[in-house]
C-alpha cells in the first residue's frame, strides 16, 4: 500500500483559504473541527466517480512560508481542463504565479501558483 488517500493544506486564515478554493476550484467543505480539536475543514474536491482524492484545510501550527522559500513539503497538482481560465480565477481571487505556464511536450501544460496562504500548488492541463 502507501497510496496517498488524503491531503491537508495548512492555512493561516481558514475563511480566506476556504473562499479561495471554493471560488477557483468549486470545492465544498465540511467542518470537522470538533473531531480534529482545531479549526479543520474537510475538502470535497469533486465527484467520486472521477479519479482524485479529498483532503482538508487545517489551521497552521507555526509560521507561514515566506514568499520565495523553497518547498519543504509535498506539492499538490490539480488537473484542469482549461489552464488559462483557471489561472485567471486564481489571480482574481488573491493567488499569485510561482512558476509560469510551460509545456510538457506531447503531454500537458504545467505551472505553479501560491494560494492566499503562501502555499504552492500546481496546475496541469493535459494535451
Tell me the fraction of residues in β-strands, as a range. 35-45%
| Major β-sheet strand ordering | 1-4-3-2
Output the radius of gyration. Answer: 15 Å
Task: Give the fraction of residues assigned to helices.
Answer: 10-25%
Number of strands: 8
Structural class: alpha/beta
Major sheet attributes:
4 strands, mixed
Mean pLDDT: 93
Global shape: globular
* Number of separate helices: 3
Order of helices and strands: EHEHEEEHEEE
CA-CA gap between termini:
30 Å
Spans with pLDDT under 50 lasting ≥5 residues? none
Characterization of this structure:
It is built from three helices and eight strands; from the N terminus they run βαβαβββαβββ. The protein has helices at 14-25, 33-36, 83-92; strands spanning 7-11, 28-31, 40-44, 55-59, 77-79, 96-104, 108-114, 120-126. The longest helix is centred in the first third of the chain and has 12 residues, at 14-25.
Salient structural properties:
about 130 residues; single chain; globular; about 20% helix; four-stranded mixed sheet; 8 strands; alpha/beta; 3 helices
Topology diagram in text:
Layout: E1 7-11, H1 14-25, E2 28-31, H2 33-36, E3 40-44, E4 55-59, E5 77-79, H3 83-92, E6 96-104, E7 108-114, E8 120-126
Parallel strand pairs: 1-4, 5-8
Antiparallel strand pairs: 2-3, 3-4, 6-7, 7-8
Amino acid at each position: 500500500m502507501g497510496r496517498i488517500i488524503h491531503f491537508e493544506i495548512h492555512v493561516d486564515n481558514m475563511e480566506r483559504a476556504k473562499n479561495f478554493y471554493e471560488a477557483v476550484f468549486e470545492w465544498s467543505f465540511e467542518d470537522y473541527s470538533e473531531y480534529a480539536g482545531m479549526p479543520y475543514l474537510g475538502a470535497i474536491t469533486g465527484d467520486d466517480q472521477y479519479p482524485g482524492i479529498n483532503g482538508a484545510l487545517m489551521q497552521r501550527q507555526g509560521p507561514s512560508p515566506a514568499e520565495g522559500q523553497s518547498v519543504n513539503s509535498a506539492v499538490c497538482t490539480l488537473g484542469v481542463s482549461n489552464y488559462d481560465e483557471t489561472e485567471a480565477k486564481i489571480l482574481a481571487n488573491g493567488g499569485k504565479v510561482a512558476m509560469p505556464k510551460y509545456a510538457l511536450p506531447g503531454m500537458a501544460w504545467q505551472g505553479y501558483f501560491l494560494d492566499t496562504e503562501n502555499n504552492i500548488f500546481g496546475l496541469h492541463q493535459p494535451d
